[in-house]
Design goal:
Blueprint: E1 7-11, E2 17-21, E3 27-30, E4 33-36, H1 37-43, E5 47-50, E6 56-60, H2 64-69, H3 80-90, E7 97-101, H4 107-116, E8 121-125, H5 129-141, E9 148-151, E10 164-169, E11 185-195, H6 198-209, E12 213-219, E13 226-227, E14 234-235, E15 245-251, H7 276-281
Parallel strand pairs: 7-8, 7-10, 8-9, 10-11
Antiparallel strand pairs: 1-2, 1-6, 3-4, 5-6, 11-15, 12-15, 13-14
Length: about 300
Amino acid sequence: MIEPGQLVLLISHKGKRYLRKLEAGGEVHTHDGRLLMDDVAEAGFGQYVKTHLGRSYLTLKPTLHDLIKGVKRQTQIMYPKEIGYLMMKLGIGPGSTVIESGTGSGGLTTALAWFVGDTGKVITYERRADFYKLAGKNLERVGLAARVEQVNRNIEDGFLHSGADALFLDVRTPWEYLGSIPGAVIPGAMCGFLLPTVNQVSDLLRGLEAGPFAETEVLEILVRRWKPVADRLRPDDRMVAHTGFLVFTRYMEQPACPSADLEDGEAPAADPEIDPDLEQDMGDDIGPGQDHDLDQE
């Protein structure tokens, strides 16, 4: 039995998807006929429900991937293949406070709100009023609005919040706002950026090199799906390749000077808790794990 207010994903025999909030007495009108929400609630997740024309629809509990694909958009949203790595790199989890700028349609905001849980907070800045309103509706639709504080403000005027555990900027010229980051995050916080061109990445790197940032990383994530047919296993004809560059860095309140306390000629001591062989294996040759992404609808 599905309780009222829960999100349900209804899938037709042709693969058409309907993401809806279950309401007692409600109806979903499809090309295959009218679907009663009371029938959906009674059937439960993983079961089939028939429309008044006798067409079957599968009822599923939506995943985060489904929620992001279901975002009503006026802008390009971030792909799930980038979002997964971003969450791990920024350390987003239950109880985290994260500042985002460039809300857009709210795709990444939805994912951030999902991961921070009821004890965390997403603070998202958007300068355009139409995107601000659209993102708010999308967050309400999936039941995550309570975890998000929206700010309709241009960040060129600075951030209104401080003490965040992480920060992510999806704006055209992020290097112009690097001076506002120290007042917005805690020392050691991870910061991320999304940029479409190498020119923008170069400009950002110059800004990071001149500021209190360390451990900078630049990458792109490519996904190649395979046809899931055991006797004819081969890659798909198309792939989701370059969709943007990700840049990550760590804000450091003070530059690290590991040699400042050493006598002349003295080598720094090895970390006794890390095996030297293991430390060597954890080098730069280890890249991001493979992610799996579905084509955008």
